[in-house]
Amino acid sequence: MEFDETAIDKKWELRLYVAGKTPKSVTALSNLKKYCEEHLKGQYRIQVIDLLEQPQLAEGDQILAIPTLVRKVPEPIRKIIGDLSNEEKVLVGLNIRPA
Amino acid sequence: MSITKPKKPAYPTLPKTPTGITGLDEITEGGLPTGRPTLICGQAGCGKTLMSIEFIVRGAIEFNEPGVFVAFEEKSDELAMNVASLGFDLKKLQEDKKIRIDHVHIDRSEIEETGEYDLEGLFIRLGYAIDSIGAKRVVLDTLENLFSGLSNQAVLRAEIRRLFHWLKEKGVTAIITGERGDGNALTRQGLEEYVSDCVILLDHRVINQISTRRLRIIKYRGTVHGTNEYPFLIDEDGISVLPVTSLKLAKQVSTDRVPTGIPALDEMLGGKGFYRGGSTLVSGTAGTGKTSIAAYFANETANRGEKCVYFAMEESPNQIMRNMRSIGVELKKHVDSGLLLFNASRPNMYGLEMHLVAIHKIIKKFKPSVIIIDPITNFINIGSISEVKNMLVRLIDFLQEEQISVMFTALSLNTIVNEQTDEGVSSLVDSWLLVRDIEYNGERNRGLYVMKARGMKHSNQVREFVISDEGLNLIEVYVGPEGVLTGSARKQQVLLEQTGKAIHTHSIGRKDREIARKRKVLEAKISSLNSEYESVEEELNKVYLEDELKKEILEKNREEITRIRRGAEDTNKPAGGK
Fold it and tell me: Domain of B144?
């Protein structure tokens, strides 16, 4: 779990669930960081959860697929699964850009 | 349909995990394949979820094997509520770490897919759940919900395949449930049945507005199994699959006899009644007293201290008890003492097979020595003649094995269908009593025949069957030149005979007196003749004596004369002398 201490009251809270350092997970994380920097600079916080280390956390957010990105804040909760390679879909899915 | 006893093999066979579900372990010869996945498929509402939860719960309670239930459809609370009616306390079991319920929620509207992914998250969750309680059993209900939540079919199919292998590697005995697909497909995706080692198909069919649940094992790798469709029942004790009865005719038989409760009927059956474990059919037209005979039998059984189950198919128990009280049979006390159990259900409450399962269940639980099914006739409404016959064969078979005597009653109407049931069933039963209306002289009376009684001496005569306040009785009918007389005609005939006898005795008396008189007359005559004879004799004697006297006197006179002449006149020789 790694997050930016200074962004505790940020508008966007994102969680990325991964299972070890698989190519898909690495791609997803780098894609996410890229989009956030582009569109949500300074207003976001990313929490990466490795289920291999904390399997008990999978149930809480109803994680099935890996990797899964969960938007905890703002409500409602949104989930995006996959390596986040399609920027358009990710932005729409996170409601950063209207569909 | 018989299942052979498992032989002792020289090589190790597939290990099996018992399900604890009544009957299922018999059909599968021990249970589901241990450490392998089993698919249970079927349409909506056929009992897939119930069967799988029962597998988990019974595993945890009866076999001490913890289990994980992954619900893709129902929430944990809903599930707990649904099975609470079966007496399964899921909350308690979860607290005791015996089972774990994991609800997997997939909502398409919440999920966006971009790029590549896999289902490692599900594997991790499942793995965590299994490891946290040391589970030996796993249920995934219903896996294909994944397909409605996620759109990448290729990934899903590959991942489900991987899941099955993963489950095998984990060494857990798994049940995967699946909705039935279109047409003949067992599952929607056409995938699970190929990767499962055992496939059980549940079915829910409605025939003649009556639904019957059935179960069939479609595949079971590496073992023999029953291949037929087996009906099963879901009730307050969970699922029970009809145990398969052997159709071999090699059963123990008893020479023990059970009385019928009607002494005169016992008399007709060689003086002892029916054989224990035998089957009896009482058939007759409406209102001939079939139920009364059955109630007597039940009463007699309870009086002996044995248990009896009365399956009432037409009347309610209270109705039967009230009606039987009117002929002096008090069944209530036996019900209260627990020796008599009434089970009332309409025949069309459920299908034939369900009836059979229900009867099985009650018998297994109550362990009676006599059962009564009153009447079997209405079964024809819910199945064809051959189906009814088939069901009864299996029932009789089962009862014989358990050494339980059974009495069926059957209403015979003058319709072809019912005659056929009558005849169809009569060939199965050991004894057959027929109560028939004898219509004569403006009244109807009941005549009872013993149509057959296997292996015992029985009367070939008709008896008049009388139901009165005192109870049932059998009376010998009057058989005479006018034919068979019953009822008031019989009574009339008896009276007629009594009158005849009286007249007869009276006339005999008169004749006797006549004779006595005649004798007197004759005797009088005889005595008068005697006296007449005496007088004639006397007369005759008198003449004789006079003659003697005369002769004597004459002799004397002559001698006198001779003496005188010698003295006085010697010359005067007697002139008239000889």
Answer: 16-241
Asked if residue B418 lies in contact with residue B377, where contact means CB atoms within 8 angstroms, the answer is: yes
Q: Would you say residue B165 has pLDDT above 70?
A: yes
In a domain, A98, yes or no: no
User: In angstroms, what separates the C-alpha of B81 from chain A's closest C-alpha?
Assistant: 21
Same domain, residue pair B41 and B137: yes
Residue A95 located in a structural domain: no
Strands B274-275 and B257-258: antiparallel
Does the pLDDT of residue A1 top 60, yes or no? no
Which residue is listed with tokens 């995706």?
B189
Q: Contacts of residue A82 in chain B, CB cutoff 8 Å?
A: 113-117
Indicate the pTM of the whole model. 0.68
The structural domain count of chain A equals 1
Task: State the nearest Cα–Cα gap between A97 and chain B, in angstroms.
Answer: 14
Determine, yes or no, domain membership for A64.
yes
φ, ψ for residue B374, nearest 5 deg: -130, 110
pLDDT (tens digit per residue) in B60-104? 999 999 999 999 888 888 888 888 888 888 888 888 889 999 888
Q: Which of A64, A82, A93 sits opposite B121 (nearest CB)?
A: A64
Task: Give Cβ neighbours of residue B500 (< 8 Å, ≥ 6 apart).
Answer: none
**Beta-bridge partners for B450:** B433
Segment B228-255 mean pLDDT: 72
pLDDT at B522 over 90: yes
Alpha helices for chain A (secondary structure H)? 23-39, 87-93
Quick one: DSSP state of residue B22?
Answer: B
Domain containing A55 equals 5-84
